[in-house]
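Project standup — Tuesday

K.O.: blocked on the structure for the chain from last sprint. Re-posting the sequence here as requested.
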Amino acid sequence: MNQKRTSKSRRIIIIAAALAVIYCLLLIPAPSPPPLSPGSSIPFLWDKDAYWSQLETMFLHNRETDSTALAASVDAGLKKVETLLDSCRTIDVAPSSSLLQQLEQAIFELSPAIAAQPGYLREFVQFRTRLRTTIKDMSRHWDMSSADSRDHLYRLLYGSRIAIEEIMLQAETDSVPTLVIATNEPSATPSAEMLGVTIHSGDILLSRGGAPTSALIARGNDYPGNFSHVALVHVDANDATVSIIESHIEIGVAVASVDDYLRDTKLRILVLRMRTDHPALIADPMLPHKAATHTLERVQREHIPYDFAMDFMDGSKLFCSEVASGTYSKFGVGLWSSLSNISSIGVRSWLGAFGVTHFETQEPSDLEYDPQLRVVAEWHDPETLYKDHLDNAVIDVMLEGAEAGQRLQYDWYMLPVARLAKVYSLVKNIWGGAGPMPEGMTATAALKNDRFSREHTRIKEDMILLAEEFREERGYRAPYWELVKLARRAANVR
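H.V.: unblocked you, prediction finished:
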């Protein structure tokens, strides 16, 4: 009997020792990637903190101003920006023109008045829609390889976006539109209805997800934006069935119905469509449908993994932007009139930790500025906009830390578990399934992503409490520049 117990104990010890050895072996870290260097471009910086505070002071003053006097001021401001925009339509405007600088300043200075008089919001939204169309039309003749051109395009288009959104977040009334119809660009391709908008085969959907990594993708760019995902629309010519083609880190390229597409968190959605006067469409008006059909058939025929490297030249794997650019490039249309640059060493190191190796690439946010595409419509509402701004503020502060030398860490003791999960995921992938770890992502990258997401959530939760205190004390929502300050405070609480 004692012999049996001794033998059993010995087996247990041997098994435990073997498991301990395996655990220790699985703890061996992967080789560190080679150090990265900064990019050759210079990330855009507003560098206007004092000016933002001045606008906030103007907003507070306007809240106390007599409504009749304020309405007269808004009417004058609207007339001024319309006059400036009309002038842009009548002459050949260079990117550095003083006229554009005057227009930018007029828009920013009008915004605090409309924020205090939200009845003008819809009129201002319509103006901004005309502004975007006009500026994108002008930019067709600009040298988009020039930093000067890109800076001025961004200043007006993104600057007017942040102005409108600050007004929406301060208004908190029924005047805030959840759907903004921009340009009803004609199209010969099959169409269907989606959330009150007619979409066409070949349309491109930009969206913003709700995950911390979505905010990182949107902000981790030389021109920080608000979009993190690209999808391509296909509409069946026979029964108008809508298929949305998109690439997910978990499963690669897949096809979703409208309901499935909307089921994933979307903080905003923008519809883009090729211009009717594009030479390729003049030659073949059905080109967008043919392109979308080509990609749909490929996805139905083969598995296309997600491209973590963000190498838009490698068509064997596709990240979300490549679903659109790769589709159109096969039909002679090159999207992204100028490539996206990720020059900051901090952003490069963090994205590199997730597997990115190409930092001159195609970022979702930059596609909005491509002059070959018209903006058709955009969906958002105050609550999703606010969440978008909260996520952005946290990421901006976290990236300040990255630029100061902070690197993404992971829970080292979880590495063996992550590696076993990776093996299980690989087996699932072979049989066409999706495991707990995304295809193409390493165990170390997955652990860093988990730690990054938890830190983002922690800072955001603390920041929300500070933002609520701000609102109670001052009687209005913290504007974006104040959210960034609150995020810094929250990040420093350990």
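K.O.: great, moving the ticket to review. The chain has three domains: 49-177, 181-379, 395-491. Residues 443-474 form the longest helix (32 residues).
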